[in-house]
Amino acid sequence: MNPDFELYDNTGRTGEQTTAAHVGRATDDDLLRWAGRDAEPHLARHPLPSGLLAAPDLTPYLTALTAAGTPAEAHAVTATFLTTVEPVLRAVSDYLLAAARWRGQLHGTPKGSPPRLLRDASGLSLAALVTADAAGLDALRAFYEPPPTRRESRSAPGLPPTAPCPPPAPKPGR
Questions:
Q1: 81: which residues sit within 8 A by CB, 6+ positions away?
Q2: What is the pLDDT of residue 1?
Q3: 136-144 contacts: CB < 8 A, separation 24 or more?
Q4: pTM of the shown model
């Protein structure tokens, strides 16, 4: 190939590689390859478990959820699933927070910095549990609490609202 055109030959390059060459930055693959090479001695001294963690078998949860006939039954299945996976999500959160705090780097760092992003990811991993729990309670509230009647919504000021009626008893055979 003519050396005058070598810089412009993008055949076989990805968009990321072309852009990285144009702006003088390393590609993500380059960074990961260099970091992997430089971390090899450390990982040899500190062997880590290899392979993926086994995902829980969703079959019993999905089967029970599909068969659920009421919000209470669906909530019971979902709550059981969330209780089952909570330790794993908490471990992910704990690790990400430890990575954010590595060598004190979190203290005083600006918003959007890698330590702050790791700290935020730590909280987001647990936010799934909180959001799912809130959704479950909202679904139960919608099922068990009747909407207020017009007369109830005009209760006298200063008086506490009336207690909700107890939920209807399940029908026999359910």
A1: 61
A2: 47
A3: 136/75, 136/78, 136/79, 139/71, 139/74, 139/75, 140/71, 140/72, 140/75, 142/71, 143/70, 143/71, 143/72
A4: 0.69
Q: In 10 A of CB 150, how many CB atoms?
A: 6
Residue tagged 């599909």 (tokens): 66
**Rounded to 5 degrees, what are φ and ψ at 55?**
-75, 150
Query: Residue 145 above 60 pLDDT?
Result: yes
Q: Per-residue pLDDT for 86 more than 80?
A: yes
In which residue are the tokens 């009747």 written?
146
Rounded CA separation 100/121 (Å): 10
Q: How far is CA 154 from the centre of its chain?
A: 42
Burial annotation 105-114 (CB, 10 A radius, 16+ → b, else e): ebeeeeeeee
In this structure, what DSSP letter does residue 6 have? G
Q: Tell me the C-alpha to C-alpha distance, in Å, between residue 67 and each of 27, 64, 169.
A: 49, 5, 20
Nearest alpha carbon to residue 140 among 80, 89, 75, 52: 75
pLDDT value of residue 2 = 47
Residue 100, burial from CB neighbour count under 10 angstroms (0-12, 13-18, 19+): buried
